[in-house]
Design brief:
It is a single chain. This protein is an alpha/beta fold. The protein folds into 2 domains: 5-143, Toll/interleukin-1 receptor homology (TIR) domain (Rossmann fold, 3-Layer(aba) Sandwich); 156-213, no CATH class. The protein is built from 10 helices and 5 strands, in the order βαβαβααβαβααααα.
């Protein structure tokens, strides 16, 4: 059964992850978590992929353990590909490794330290309810492949051009970053500056911004 929230965690954080799920479900927030929600004799990987595809938000229990977990990295990459909102719930004061940084560097973090964690669980649930009720993520199955909310200031063709330019510097993750940044950018300049920050080289950043500024924008 599809669930609103997919919970990603490393084995070392299992207790925290299941506490989080218990608290969220007590408040009516549907969660999917392995191995509880994997059917007997099912293909583990396929079940996880299907659950991520059906979810609306990923909560990542972030710690040193998840930071080094190949499984967590694959789940985050899949969620980014599906354009889910990824909400890191940081239970230790660590920064994401480069393999995760592309996906988490501009996300809104919720810090869950120092203990006790109960107030942090309450804060997370409140944040999830706000996201789900406000319709920040798509709920109609016909729009599930386009989960990012694109403001009227940007056209689909324009975002696609920006995405292609950014991809030449940072690869396929450009699509996720463009859609996420466009969701709340106030204008083209703010959008370009946010995206340029994802490029390492100063010269490449200047070239990216310059090429995007030269695009022919749609007439109003």
């Amino acid at each position: 059964m599809p669930r609103d929230v997919f919970v990603s965690y490393s084995q070392s954080d299992r207790e925290c992850a299941f506490e989080l799920v218990a608290r969220a479900e007590s408040e009516g927030i549907d969660c999917w978590i392995a191995p509880r929600d994997i059917s007997p004799a099912a293909d583990w990987a396929a079940e996880i992929i299907d659950a991520i595809s059906a979810a609306r938000i990923m909560v990542l229990v972030f710690s040193a353990g998840s930071n080094h977990s190949p499984q967590v990295r694959r789940e985050v990459e899949r969620a980014a590909h599906k354009q889910l909102i990824i909400l890191p719930f940081r239970i230790e004061d660590v920064q994401p490794e480069r393999s995760l940084e592309f996906f988490l560097s501009t996300q809104h973090w919720l810090d869950a330290f120092p203990p006790p964690r109960e107030p942090h669980y309450a804060s997370l649930c409140a944040h999830l309810r706000t996201l789900l009720r406000a319709g920040v993520v798509a709920t109609d199955a016909t729009t599930a492949a386009h989960r990012a909310v694109i403001p009227s200031a940007f056209g689909e063709a324009e975002l696609r051009q920006i995405e292609l330019r950014l991809a030449s510097y940072i690869g396929p993750v450009a699509r996720h970053l463009v859609r996420r940044a466009a969701a709340d950018a106030l204008g083209i300049e703010q959008l370009l500056q946010r995206l340029a920050a994802e490029i390492e080289s100063d010269e490449d950043r200047r070239q990216f911004v310059g090429s995007c500024r030269q695009m022919e924008r749609p007439r109003g």
